[in-house]
Write a structure and sequence with these properties.
alpha/beta, 11 helices
Length: 346
């Protein structure tokens, strides 16, 4: 892989990795100057996988949806939501599966947003309607829609269902009509699409989408079942060259955000502090979306107790440090999910 430490062109390209790399590089200085607390009183950010149900079956899904497991019951969902509000979590992203098909989706959006929590959400667009778009806009101004190719042939193949491309494009337009200002398109590069970034840029420009988010495909979850979907090393080289070419072109739209799904783990090791939490559809409380590791279940304990008794310092746990130290890049993720980590608290 090429070195990602490139100088971004003004307002055109943002290599998110650079900020993570700066955190890793400056970690000793932060400790020396004592600018970070020993731990945070609560997560700053929570990724809440509200449901494991999904109308699609994406080749690269990191949680292997649709799942056969049961989602949290309503009573436990509201207990978690109340905790997020009480502990003053700054931001919650409602994800899935497909979060918009959960019967409590809009109620949770409303409750959390009216309680002062900043809300983001992701969607495939499959279930979007003008009415749903209006309801989402009432509670959040930031929505990510997944579009995994510039045409139906590629997108529908990757997402495992005919018609998913047209629904995703229609969802973007519905959200725009509803007044959502920050619509991000997430593009997962696969062997079918990694060479088509220019066409994805054109599609986003045509749709009026300001941000195109893409990253190295995380070698976890469903990717193990579809290894043929992974881009080659040469394709990644060409993809990054295309991102750089877009930056140098002076085009203002879309802004491209590129990421490495393993880099936040190196930040965790370097800083030894947990900034965000993940709650799976089954209720497991973890600290990274790409590895099957948890420090408890909200079915059995409160999120606050799980946080206090281990999750807030998960990156310091000896097993975590030993396993993450093996991960040098995104491709190394494929070996780790075979060793799920469960640290239960009394």
């Amino acid at each position: 892989m090429p070195n990602l430490s490139l100088n971004p062109t003004q307002d055109t390209m943002f290599f998110a990795d650079q900020h993570w790399e700066d955190l890793v590089e400056n970690a000793p200085l932060y400790e020396q100057c004592d600018v970070l607390p020993e731990y945070f009183a609560a997560p700053i950010f929570v990724l809440w996988e509200l449901t494991g149900k999904c109308p699609l079956k994406c080749m690269y899904c990191y949680v292997s949806c649709p799942k056969k497991t049961e989602d949290l019951p309503e009573e436990e969902i509201w207990r978690v939501a109340n905790e997020l509000v009480r502990t003053k979590v700054f931001m919650v992203c409602l994800s899935g599966g497909e979060p918009t098909i959960h019967p409590l989706y809009l109620e949770l959006l409303s409750y959390l947003s009216h309680s002062g929590v900043t809300i983001g959400t992701v969607t495939s667009g499959w279930s979007m309607t003008p009415r749903l778009a209006q309801a989402i806009r009432a509670h959040t101004n930031s929505v990510q829609v997944s579009i995994d190719g510039p045409n139906a042939s590629i997108h529908d193949t990757v997402r495992g269902r005919a018609g998913s491309f047209s629904r995703a494009v229609a969802a973007v337009k519905m959200l725009q009509d509803a007044g959502v200002e920050r619509i991000h398109v997430a593009f997962a590069p696969t062997r079918y699409s990694a060479d088509l970034l220019p066409e994805m840029i054109d599609l986003c420009a045509e749709l009026g989408v300001a941000t195109l988010r893409t990253q190295h495909l995380a070698a976890v979850g469903s990717v193990a079942l579809y290894p043929e979907c992974e881009p080659t090393a040469d394709q990644y080289e060409r993809l990054l060259r295309a991102i750089t070419a877009h930056a140098k072109s002076g085009s203002k739209q879309p802004v491209i955000q590129w990421g490495d799904p393993s880099l936040h783990m190196h930040v965790g090791l370097a800083l030894g502090r947990t900034f965000g939490a993940r709650i799976t559809s089954e209720g497991d409380a973890g600290f990274t979306p790409y590895l099957d590791w948890s420090f408890g279940s909200v079915r059995r304990q409160s999120l606050s107790l799980i946080w206090e008794r281990g999750l807030r310092s998960a990156w310091r746990h000896p097993l975590v440090r030993e396993r993450v130290s093996r991960i040098k890049g995104p491709l190394d993720l494929r070996a780790v999910p075979n060793y799920p980590l469960r640290v239960e608290i009394a």
